[in-house]
Amino acid sequence: MNDYEDFISTVSHELRTPLTSIRGFSQTMLASWEKLDDDNKKKFLNIIIEQSNRLINLVENMLSVTKLQDTKDTIIIKEVTIKPVIEMICSIVKTQHPDKSFKIDINDHAILADKDKFQQVMTNLIENAGKYGDDKSTITIKSNYANDFVIIKVINNGIEISENDYEKIFTKFSRIDNPLTRKVQGSGLGLYITKNLVEKMGGNIRVNSQNHETVFEVSMPCANIERQAMNAVRNSNN
Ligand SMILES: Nc1ncnc2c1ncn2[C@@H]1O[C@H](COP(=O)(O)OP(=O)(O)O)[C@@H](O)[C@H]1O
Ligand SMILES: [Mg+2]
Fold it and tell me: In this structure, are 100 and 39 located in the same domain?
């Protein structure tokens, strides 16, 4: 299959599944309105919301793929405080994966980034941790500061990614074939886009997966005052 055929087959599958489910649950609700109790109605509506969120993320990722090739797609770099962004994403992913716990161990670090794109990066990583992490496990997100970069780690327990696949997972449409990925759905676009966006913003991303633990590590240029002051001193010495 070429790239284009790959794209069409992935996209049609990925679009059809949530759409079918949204239509199915809405039809059932309408047809059985009187028979359904409030709890069931709520449950169905929640499924409809969840599946709509899935569609929205998918469409956003698909638009990004085409935009990545567009040199005119501007990124607006500003100072972004990472904690509120990450807290917001975790609360959304929690609704999709209620069995997971989240541990956010992040200081008031600020980075230089395009806020929307950074949000998309973190959404892809935290969603993956929710999707591929063990049932009922804890997802940890922590950050530290090193050499003018803020390093953000998204950590989950679960089936490991073998070292041979470390590069592959960041390429277009790549999914690792194991019982786990067969169970959960995906387009294989998330990490491809994530890596591209991170690098466009002057950062980098890598993965390390061993002892039943997977760590995605994103480094983003730091935006704190000390750094700017240090740079100013450095520049005046040059
Ligand atoms: N946290 C993780 N733990 C284990 N495997 C992962 C994790 N994140 C990503 N992967 C693997 O990398 C593949 C590519 O991820 P991604 O590009 O986000 O695509 P998708 O989630 O749509 O499959 C996944 O299919 C999965 O096999
Ligand atoms: Mg993904």
Answer: no
176 CA → ligand 1 middle, Å = 7
- 65 Cβ contact partners less than 8 Å away, ≥ 6 residues apart: 172, 189, 192, 193
Quote the mean pLDDT of the chain. 88
The total number of structural domains that make up the chain: 2
Tens digit of pLDDT for each residue in 135-158?
Answer: 999 999 999 998 889 999 999 999
Out of 10, 97, 191, mutate this one to test ligand 1's pocket (max ligand atoms within 8 Å of CB): namely: 191
Q: Model-level pTM?
A: 0.80
179-198 pLDDT, tens digit each: 777 777 777 889 999 999 99
Query: Which structural domain, as residue segments, surrounds residue 44?
Result: 3-68
Ligand (nearest to CA of 154)? 1
- 31 and 125 in a common domain: no
Q: Are residues 105 and 204 in the same domain?
A: yes
Residues 155 and 90: their CA atoms lie apart, in Å, by 13
Phi-psi region of 188 (alpha: psi -120 to 50; beta: other; left: phi over 0): left
In a domain, 73, yes or no: no
